[in-house]
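User: My instructor asked us to take a sequence, write out its structure as tokens, and then describe one feature of it. I'm not sure where to start. Here is the sequence I was given:
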Amino acid sequence: MRPPLRPLALVPGPPSPRAAGLGRGLALFALAALAGCVKPAGSCHETPDCASGETCDGGVCVRTATFGGGGGGSGGGIEPTAFTSVAWSALQGSPGATFRPDSVGADSISGDVVVAGALDGAFAPWGLGTGAFVAKVSGLAAFDWAFPFPTFSHGKLRAAVLPGGDVLFAATALAPTTIGGLPPITPPAQGALVVGRLDAAGNAIWAVSIPSASASATLVPVAAAVLGSDLLVAGTGAGDFGCGATAGQTFVAALAGANGACLWSRGFATRSIADAEPRDAGDVLVAGICAPTGAYFDPQGGTTCTSGLWVAALSGSTGATLWATTGSGAVSAVRDVAVAPDGSLAVVGDATGSVRFGGAAAIDFGPHAGSFAARFAADGTPGAVIRPIEAPYALLADAASFDRCAADRLGKLWIAGRYRGQPTLGGALFPECRLPACAAATYLARLEGDGSVSSFLPLRVAPLGDGSAFVDDLVLFATTGTLAHALRLTGSTSVGGASWTSVGGGDLGVLRIAP
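Assistant: Let's start with the prediction itself. The structure tokens for your sequence are:
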């Protein structure tokens, strides 16, 4: 779980690397003012003092605003006039309870939202205690049911919703557990991957345990999705799903929705896999970071990983590699994949320095970490790369992250992330978030094909009486006519006309968006 992007003085605990960098930049400015002879990072007298891709603006290096293929947004910097419509929103929490959402999905027929995640403490309204959970929220923002997984490992539960409301799930169990009235599962010492199905009313239908192929490694899911009427699951580790043990350090498997039987499974030598998403054509897209050098995508001699981002398309019926695209450069994070109805895709993450996304021209992200949304055509051809415009070194620092992405049925790309200050994305100038009125903020933005923002939803969080405020653990999902969003929040804000004020250590916020 990534630490929140937050003001360092407000929230206890270790800061994120990017937040720490912002804090160090401010400290250097203060030292320079005292000493009169130290040139702090990001300061300048003129543009040549700055890194490639930056200009000098008021003594501070700011990323150059570009638009299109090199994508840094439009640079127009106007406040958005179109705000995303929220169909409904709900906040769940209680003192002493901390939610951590892992995934969110929606029933494409009813629009009901299903959230999976972890909970520390007790939450009486849902009859939950410490452990993992799956909960369903109806279209009226009313709680329907919650299913507990008290012995599942925290932060490792993924769920996907079948049309009609049944829920397919994948999680890591580290201790003996019973799922509803099903036979008990006793995992080995390193734990086991457990996949199963709940019906639309929250009753367990089936569950199976998948052992690890290594006595020292645990199978951990990072993504789950619906592949037709079946379960698509991806994660780290190697195991035997019923089609023979997968080789490598990460896996993708397709399992029958009726009973969990293996349809196909395969492994990769790459240590990183971020997401797996099906396409309307029936194939599967997966993405991650290339590591180590020489890791394979196809054991029969196909594309290998060198550095940077990797994206591959797999056959939905066999799992064989259809094509693979690799980039180069310092990509430090790949977080999510969005697939449009025409088969094109976008991948969000972070990078520094000079980076190539497949065969595209190199993009210089500069010396500090910056987020990106890299687009690819249906055949893997690299397209435009979208970035926020930010001033991370300024005394009033701006920063924005791309944490999750999804594509709606109209093909629009949605990005969810966190921000501070007043960065710009696709011509939209974010509503300002600075102390004391605003301590943390997230946003949800809809982007057009040219990278411009056509709809925007900010969530600016004000601190509570004890000064605590954060918003993180963002998850996002899009399906026919429905966009669902979940997050963890402490503080107070307003969304969709409703006021949210947290009462626990980290409350669960759920939104259904009307695209």
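For the description part of your assignment, you could build on this observation: The first helix runs from residue 17 to 35. Try explaining in your own words what that tells you about the chain.
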